[in-house]
Each structure stands twice: as C-alpha cells, then as structure tokens.
Amino acid sequence: MIGRLRRKFIVISMLSVTLVLALLIAAINILNYREVVSDADSILEMLTINEGSFPDEEPPEGRPPEDNGGRGGRRGDRMSPEMKYETRYFKIVLDNDGNVLVIDTGRIAAVDSSEAADLAREVFSGSKTSGFKGDYRFKKTADGGETLIIFYDCGRSLDNARSFLGISIVISLIGLLVFFALIAISSKAVIMPAAEAYDKQKRFITDAGHELKTPLAVINADCDVLEMESENNEWVTDIRKQTERLTSLTNSLIMLAKTEEGSKTDVVKIDFPLSDIMSEETESFRGPAKASGKTIETAITPDISYYGDQKAVTQLISILLDNAVKYSPEGGVIRVSLNKSGSKTVLSVSNDTEGTLTKENTDRMFDRFYRTDGSRNSETGGYGIGLSIAKGITEAHGGKIYASAGNNSITVTAEL
Questions:
Q1: Smallest Cα–Cα separation from 79: which of 108, 109, 51, 59?
Q2: 0.85 exceeded by the pTM?
Q3: In this structure, are residues 339 and 306 in contact, taking their beta carbons and an 8 Å threshold?
Q4: pLDDT classification of 152: cutoffs 50, 70, 90
Q5: In the chain, what are the domains?
C-alpha cells in the first residue's frame, strides 16, 4: 500500500508539472508564431499598398526620421533604412484568366520565374487571400481585371520559431527529469508520516487480534462449563453467540492486516485445479442459498489450472460467494463464472440487488467496514471487511478486483 501511495504521489506530481509546462510551452510558441505571421502580414500589406515595392524611405519635409530600433517596417510607416535590402519577396500579376502578366523575382534568389509562376497559379486558383505556401507568406489582391500576388520569404523567422520550439521542449524535458529525480527522492520523506501511521495501525490490529484470542478462548471454555451445569440457558447461549462473532471478527482483522499490503513475497504458489476448486466452493454454498430462497447458476470453464496460493484463492472464492448469498434478496439469482481471457484468469460472481447501486457504492465496496445503504447492512451478520480481504488476495497475485453495477444486479470480478 505504501509503495502504491508513493508511486501515485510521484505520478500525480509529474503529470501536474508536465501539464503546466506543456501549456506554457504551447502558449509561448503560439504567441511567437503569431508574431511572425503578424510581422509578415504587415510587410505584405505595405508592399501591396505600394504595388509590390517599398515606399519612399525619405520622410516628409519637416518631419524627422523615426527610429524603430532596426526592427523594420512592421507597423505603419515605421521602416528601417536596411529593410528593403533585408526583405526577400517576389510578386506576380495575373489577368482574370490566370495568365501571368508580370513576374518580378529581383528581390529573391531562391525562386526563379517558373517556380514563381507555378506558385502564383496555385494561389490564384484557391479561395484564400492570404496564407502560407511552404515558408512563403502570400497576399492576393484583385484590382480591376488584374490580380496582384506577393510572396514574402518567412524562412528565417520560421526557422527561428522552430528552433525556439525545439530548445524549449529540450529544456522542459531536462527540467522534468530533474524534477522527477527530486520528487522521487523527496517522496519517501513526504509519505513517511502516512507510512508510519499505517504500519502502527497494522501492527495494532495484528497484536490486538492475537491478544483477544486468549480471552475469547477462555470465555468459550467457560460457556462449555456453564452449559453442562445449566442446560438451555438463554444467557449462556447469547454469550457463546457473541463470542463466536468476536472470534470471527478477530480472525478477519488479522487476515486483513496480512493481506492488505498485497505482498507477493508472502504468497506460496503451486499449480492447482482452479475449476475444481471453484465448483466445490459453489456447491458448498448451494445449501445456504436454497435455504434463503436463492438459486445459483454456474458457467465454469472446465480444466482451468492456476499457479498461485491455493488456500488464499479458495478463500477469495468463498468471500465472493458468501457476499453474494448474504446480500442478494430472497428469490434472487447468483451467477458464478470462471474463464480464461488471454493470460488472465477471470472469475466473477454476480447477484441480484434491491435497487441499482451507484458508481460511488461500487468504487467504495472494497474499503474496510464500508456498507452501502441498500444491499449491505448489519442484519446480514457481516463486518464489511470481506471484500477488503478479497482485494488483498487478488493484488498479492498481481491481479485486480472491481465491482460493476447493472440493472438491479452487481458483479464482482477478480482478474488473476
């Protein structure tokens, strides 16, 4: 249990940090990409207004030149002197039929006239007025009988954006590895109080259970003497009945303390005929079921063997059958099945219920001393720990156990 708690703490912590980092990386890189697109659109807008050329760089008379920190004409009429020499673009003019009228590739060396014409025809035939073709951002403008298409080379900006994305991912992965190492080291100290409290609780249950065995045995022996001296004494009968209940509860608590941790090292494994064990245990419960007006239906696949702790698995089957017989209503049907599913051995026991159980009920059925309002009450004589023991036995065999509610029925399935 402590090991599972520690792993759960590490997983939740790692998932939380990973989610936060992923959101941060996504937000930063999306904003970075949008800035690249925005700058490209500003340049294309300026080129479109000036029919594919940069405007006069000289400011109007009497107006001083504006300094943009060398970043270029991204906003309005602010343009650095070097911008027209740094910007790589080309323009094409087409008529209404898509015939190329003008090609100007003088501002770019990576694209020749033929490639420029092909790109322009693709854009012309499409419905978009702006977008990307590879690393080229384009803007399409129709004026009269002609269409002007300008392509702006965003390769350098996009490469920088991709490089930034790669660097941010690598740094985040390194950060996650460092965080994982730190959380793995510190998790032991974080859950230490819970581990100590759990160990003390388990030790108390075991020690108290063993200490209670002696006085319960003495009370039973005294009851035997009293019964011999005074026959049919209702008080002695009641004392014996309650003593037997306490003895059963004590043994169950000791068993729960042993199985709850689910240690595989405590399991003594042998090959045994599971189908035969399942059939024998089912037959032993037919009498009690019939006495309370209930029927048992079986679907047990023959000749299934299992490698595990025979005594513990037998107890698991007994707990599930006892639980179904106790908590099914009068006239109810109990269904028992055993089959193989790939490498798993699946055994399940279902029973009718009075009403439909909620998901909260089924999720908590394996908690110690938990009872649902509708189907598990003290009148049955149980203690609410049988399924907790079943869970410990299943997990000790590397399996899992779960409950699922249907229409006025519930099924408990153990996968070994």
A1: 59
A2: no
A3: no
A4: very high
A5: 2-158 (3.40.1840.10), 264-415 (3.30.565.10)
